Amino acid sequence: MKVRIFSTPICPYCLTLKRFLEEKGIEIEEVDVSADEKSREEMVEKTKQTTLPVLDINGEFIVGFDRNKICEKLGIED
What we know:
Strand content: 15-25%
Number of strands: 4
CATH topology: Glutaredoxin
Oligomer: single chain
Distance between the termini: 19 Å
């Protein structure tokens, strides 16, 4: 399963989501959209939003820290 998180280093919600995923043992690929313009453009194109964090789970994008939806898609307990 490929899990990417589009975030910035100063986004508190991004840090909370990363910590949550780490605690659940989910390996993530971090994408810093403040430093990677191409990834930022991909995120906006796929979600039509600039809100962070954005989670990409096998090509399905979840905008924000929607705990229930994230747990459902990853097949983990909250």
